Amino acid sequence: MKEKLLVDKKLLEKQLFWIEISFNECSKIGIKKEYSVDEFGKFETLCSRYSRGIDFLIRKIFRTLDEYEFENQGTLVDVVNNAHKRGLFDDIDELRIMKDVRNTIAHEYIEDELVEVFDEVLVYTDTLMRIIHNTLHYIQVSYIDAKN
After folding, report:
1. Which of 144, 127, 9 is nearest to 64 (CA)?
2. Which domain holds residue 18?
3. What is the CATH number of the domain that holds 102?
4. pLDDT tens digits, residue range 79-130?
5. What are the DSSP calls for 5-30, one per residue?
């Protein structure tokens, strides 16, 4: 089980690496009324990485932590509540909003409507990166450093 946790930690670090690259590029671009093709492409990439990152964090990493800590494998709500109890993030409602933003991205097929979420994606990507850092720290301190 520890091996699975270590593999998942590496995958989360890789997710974070790519999210940070896109976030930094899009932060430099900023929020505009219109984007060049290149700028739009960078934001679209950030949206994709944000969506994959939030899914991976909640559906994979948080579930792996529950499994490792012998928590009941309950609903997604249970998984989020357990992660909150671990102190991985401060506000459950904010995480729900982040998940809603992800759902909006996944269901926006029209370019103009996707542009409307770019500002939210920038804000919540920053929050997502903090949660990922907290989670990586939690795994390192609780299971890697503590068990060696």
Report:
1. 9
2. 2-145
3. 1.20.120
4. 999 999 999 999 999 999 999 999 999 887 666 678 889 999 999 999 999 9
5. HHHHHHHHHHHHHHHHHHHHHHHHH-
